[in-house]
Design goal:
- The chain is mainly alpha-helical.
- It is built from three helices and two strands.
- Strand 1 and strand 2 form a beta hairpin.
- The longest helix is centred in the middle third of the chain and has 24 residues.
């Protein structure tokens, strides 16, 4: 169970102001969120046995390694270049 003081501390860290009307609602909501997370955590405690049970592969295409273009071919249309790179002049 989360307390009003903890909610106010969280709100202060987030630079939020919380009215007294919102405090009860936020405390209840946060307690429900934490309870839900605890339920999920308990349910998935032994789920590590089921990690990656299917063999994953891309069924839409084969990954084929192709050689990259030659640097000169890439730079052939460069207006300005220097030492194998595009040269971008600084505007003043």
């Amino acid at each position: 169970m989360i307390t009003h003081e903890e909610i106010l501390n969280i709100a202060n860290l987030a630079k939020l102001s919380v009215s007294s009307e919102e405090l009860d609602e936020l405390t209840k909501d946060m307690s429900e969120i934490i309870g839900f997370a605890d339920t999920i955590n308990a349910a998935s405690a032994d789920a590590s046995d089921f990690d990656n049970i299917n063999n994953l592969s891309n069924v839409f295409r084969e990954d084929v390694v192709v050689p990259s273009c030659d640097r000169e071919e890439i730079l052939k249309n460069a207006k300005n270049r220097d030492d194998g790179y595009f040269l971008v002049k600084k505007r003043m």
